[in-house]
Amino acid sequence: MRIKFSMRNPRTAKTTALMKSSEPQQTSTAQPSISMYSDMGLRRVVIIIALANLAYFFVEFAMARRIGSVSLFADSIDFLEDASVNLLIALAIGWSPRSRARVGMLLAAILLAPVLALLWTAWQKFNVPTPPEPWLLSLTGLGAMVVNFGCALLLARFRHHGGTLTRAAFLSARNDVLANIGIILAGVITLQWSSGWPDLIVGLAIAAMNVDAAKAVWSAARKEHLAPSA
After folding, report:
1. Do residues 187 and 70 make contact, with C-beta atoms less than 8 angstroms apart?
2. Among 13, 95, 150, 200, which is most buried by a count of CB atoms within 10 Å?
3. pLDDT, averaged across the chain
4. What is the distance between the alpha carbons of residues 9 and 22, in angstroms, rounded to a whole number?
5. What's 41's DSSP letter?
6. What's the distance, Cα to Cα, between the start and end of the chain in Å?
7. How confident is the model at residue 35, as a pLDDT?
């Protein structure tokens, strides 16, 4: 009885081994297709977001120059920065984690660009703090909030996909919605109290949020770059 058992056992072991070896092959072929589908979906979304940000940049920049608003100027440059960020993400999708981390560090530097532009505008506004037209300020801020909120909703599906790149895009969308609420409130306050200070303070707050987002993206990119490759 022992001999019979030992002769049957290799067959059953071989059969089960063959069945088990066939299972991982199915999962391994299915996995890349899911990843490719996610990459294609993310690329399509970030291109849409880049075009929306670029379009509203021209709207907000023209309005900022028309009414002399520091906060709208800062936010318009932020729209241009977001368009650049999302175009870079579209190019870098599918790259290795270390390559994505390098692009993430570049995006952190791009996030600081509006701060430099704002400092020059704010310095001019300090000398002559004339208030912008409050209704146009609030309405332009409301339009910007609608655009950014739509972009944040589109990115919500891909929050945990793409490493530091999608983190950069999500942080930008989140900060922009908060900044737009500040612009709307600045317009309401200016309507009651004719002063250029609410607009200037919101502009400086937008700059501070960009610095914070740049630090967060740089830190995440550094971790991804220093992590051992699998």
Report:
1. no
2. 200
3. 77
4. 20
5. H
6. 49
7. 54
